[in-house]
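Hi R.,

As promised, here are both runs. First protein below:
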Amino acid sequence: MGKNDIPTPLVRRHLLETPLDKTQALRIAEAYLADERTLEALAFLAAAEAWDRLAEVREAVIESGDAFILRGIAEVVGSEPPAEEWERLAAAAEAAGKSVYAETARRQSQRRED
């Protein structure tokens, strides 16, 4: 899978606004993931109801320290990450030199604990 399987922005919008075959949605999601376009893959993973694959992506996002994409995943699944996930993400972000994401994750962790 590669760039040829990724829809144009207009086609993407139309695909997400109509009922989409789960197999096709998963294929598109995987194409986005292969192209390192994780945020765009999320809606297609949800359309495919590929919850196990989304959990794998979530874990990879936490390990990479990307607070922005973790928020996107939270929107897709409809629930905020627990404090423990934010703490793990903060540590990973700090180790990767992503200080803004580390601070964001620490704030989110504190909010979840309150």
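And here is the second one, sequence first, then its structure tokens:
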Amino acid sequence: MKSLFIKNYLICPLQFNKSSGKVEDTLTKQSKSKITFKNQTYNIVDKVIDMRFSEDREYTSYDNILNNWSIPNFKNDSKIFKESINAAGINESDIKDKVILIAGVGGGTELNLILNLKPKFVVALDFSNFLISLSKKEYYKNLPVLFIMGDLCNIPFKTESFDYIFSGGIIQMTRTPELAHRNLWRVLKKKGYLNYSHIYLENLHNRRITSDRLFNNLHNKNVKYAKTFLRIYCFIYFILVKTRILKLINRKSWRLPFLIELSGNVNAKEYYTSAIDYYLPRYRHMIKEEDVFDWFVKCGGGAKRTPKGFISQK
């Protein structure tokens, strides 16, 4: 299935970009280490096809973030699984026996969620080199999943390739969110679904985060320094929360440089993993809710809200 999908649906993103979508240049040759199109060659690294442009291959901002994340095991926790399905607005019958694109894999949470719903085949697309490490996990060895490194703003697949596209917490991390959306809509089949979850929407909390992010500029500083800085402040914040001192502080006149207001009984490490996700990626666009609806309208669709995002049928 993997070889057949690559042969029938993979296209050269460089040629497609140059031709403005008029020509979908399919592969001409494939080996264990390379995949070749008419005028362009891409590497296969540890069985993962790298369809990114050459200038994007050495390092991405998420390479030093994803290693710190922990991913829930949905097979062992049915409660979290059901809660996640409901929150994402996923209808299980829309996934089973269908060809799915996970647009932005991250640490694998959404990928594992979808694989538990018995799809026919899943393409796991991500911009980060971390995808190589993720693909080596024993969990995926006998599952119908193909790992490909690529750019959501220039997706290397033919028009109308997927029955269902799921993207969780990724669209705001792309260099141009609306362009990424148009690419996702292009590769979605008619009658297929595009499902977004955890979009970084404009609200008071996110405006404060964005203000702090721009002021401290950690995403443009030395990674080791930035991580140490965040560890210290997250530990202080954790102590203030647990001792309830934070409630006594008038944060209109004073607050910590990093406002990570998480609900629930979390530990200092969880504050930290959230903080590096907020402050270290190269891009983090704050998006208005009405703009998301407008993206779909401009593409000829119409979205509706889910508990954690937006969904639309093409």
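A quick note on the second one: The chain has a mean pLDDT of 88. Let me know what you think.

Best,
J.
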